[in-house]
Every structure is written in C-alpha cells, then in structure tokens.
Write a structure and sequence with these properties.
The protein has helices at residues 2-11, 79-86, 111-127, and strands spanning 13-23, 28-31, 34-38, 41-44, 49-56, 63-69, 90-100. The strands form two sheets. It has a four-stranded antiparallel beta sheet with strand order 3-2-5-6, with no helix packed on it. Strands 4-1-7 form a three-stranded mixed beta sheet. It is α+β, with helices and mostly antiparallel strands. Helix content is 27%, strand content 39%. It is built from three helices and seven strands.
Length: 129
C-alpha cells in the first residue's frame, strides 16, 4: 500500500517553459539579466510572476519589457498541491511571448557622423575636464 502511494506521488510534476520570439528573429534575449539565447529562445522556470525581458539585435532598438507570467488554474493554491505532487501524469505549462523590434533610423549608421563623434571624443580626452 505504501509503495503504491509513493509511486503515485513520484509521478506528479509540472514542467514550466517560457519562450520569447521576436520579429525579426535572431535577437539576443535576456531574462532577469541572464542571457537565454537568441530568439526564438526558451527557458524553464520555477516561479510565476513578472520577468524583465531584454531583447537586442544590431540595427534595432533594444526592447525591455516587464512581462507578467500568470499561473494557470491548476497552479493556484490549493490545486497546485495536487498538480505538483499527486498528478498521475506530467503536466507541461508553456508560455509564449512575441515582440516586434523597431529598426533604428538610418542616421544611426552614418559612418561619417560616427567618425566625427570619435574624433570629438579623442579631442576632448586630450584636453581633460
């Protein structure tokens, strides 16, 4: 009897996965300051709540969002006790978020302006404060 109860208890598990997709794909994705890869990027997580997601890609503005990740009904107490410990099957909980990145204006890539700014910094560093 005890062995059967332990076998049932050992099977319950909830797998939580967060996926971030960007348009265009290939942006570097960081969640709460930890790099998880290039989009589409996924990570497993333990706790529901608000995550800070940072997406950056050359030629596009860096996007930082505070993304709430809400628990499904079976992860709200007291139901979470059953789904986490007593469920006879593994439950997979997936959260997917999609973001559009904004291209930088063309002036940001002007080589002549960049060289002028570099020369200006060089001149200011030689004169001191």
């Amino acid at each position: 009897m005890l062995a059967a109860l332990l076998a049932v208890c050992a099977t319950g598990c909830v797998s939580r996965r967060l996926t971030v997709r960007t348009n265009p794909p290939g942006a570097i994705v960081e969640v709460n300051g930890r790099r998880i890869g290039t989009s589409p990027a996924s990570m497993d997580f333990t706790y529901y709540g608000t995550y800070e997601i940072r997406m950056s890609r050359p030629g596009f503005e860096t996007l930082v969002v505070k993304q709430p990740v809400a628990p499904p009904w079976y992860q709200v107490p007291p139901a979470d006790l059953i789904s986490d410990n007593l469920s006879p099957v593994q439950i997979t909980n997936r959260h997917e978020f999609q973001y559009a990145l904004t291209p930088l204006p063309p002036a940001a890539f002007d080589d002549h302006q960049l060289q002028e700014r570099a020369q200006d910094f060089r001149n200011r560093s030689r004169t001191g404060p």
